[in-house]
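Standup notes
- DV: blocked on the single-chain target, sequence here:
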Amino acid sequence: MNETRARLADAVLALLPGVKRRLQASLPEEFRSELSRVTWHQVEALKQLSAPHGSAGATMTELARLQNCALSSATALVDRLIAQGLAERRPDPLDRRVIRIAPTAGGEQLVKRFEVERRRIAVDALAPLTDDEVATLLQLMRKLAGDEESSGEVAANLEVAHG
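- DV (later): unblocked, structure below
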């Protein structure tokens, strides 16, 4: 690695905590207090439990795969969600031997509120940038995430939207 690349990497890493602080500071106080009871990781798990599996939920193995974690870690995560009343164990409608984990009504409500707030925070955070700068940022972030295939689609969709 050359010295210039190393300095640039250090500069990027140094900015990340400030970006995180800015995003967290834009959360409304009542929502911040609500989120103090759960982690962002738990909210993400609730989203995963509701999104691809609908009302049936997901098995512990499916959740572990979605979370990219060990089964024991997924179990601990689910135990915390259940203790907080955000998820519940349900029998599989097609196979009574299978237990599925699904968000409760309170868990679904938290996910919906989180999504609304997350979008508002992102829009506020991106306000200083032009649409072209946001499109460039998105393309670069997708490249960093290894999702270069869809970055071209996003750019094309943005051109159509602005066109």
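- Follow-up: The chain has two domains: 27-128, 129-163.
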